[in-house]
Amino acid sequence: MCVFCKIAKGEIPSNKVLESDDFICFHDLNPRAPIHLLIIPKIHVENFQEMPSQLMGEMTSFIQEVASKMGLDQSGYRLITNNGEDGGQEVMHLHFHLLGGTKLSWTHFTPDDTHKAL
Predict the structure, then answer these.
(1) What pTM did the predictor assign?
(2) Is residue 43 within 8 Å of residue 7, measured between CB atoms?
(3) Following DSSP, what letter does each residue of 37-67 receive, concatenated?
(4) Measured in whole angstroms, how far is the alpha carbon of residue 40 from the centre of its chain?
């Protein structure tokens, strides 16, 4: 069983922000912004490619509720999911990073990095 499944089942404690029957949101242990949350489905879904579209629709409403609860719905936030090993996914359980609480910059790639990848 993966670490996020254990969190969803309550076997590993987390600093929860919001929970429903199908999803849970909790604070990231290694935040990259003043607000850095992880949002996961409670059932094990390996990555975005495996996510049933109906469940993703329900997850959209949950994420919007989290953003509102954290006061980010008006100021803005970044929502990220890494898909698969080449996409940078480290835990093979679908999760979205919701980052906010400050003006976020984008420094992940430089133009030179992009050209090298082509």
Answers:
(1) 0.88
(2) no
(3) EEEEESS---SGGG--HHHHHHHHHHHHHHH
(4) 7
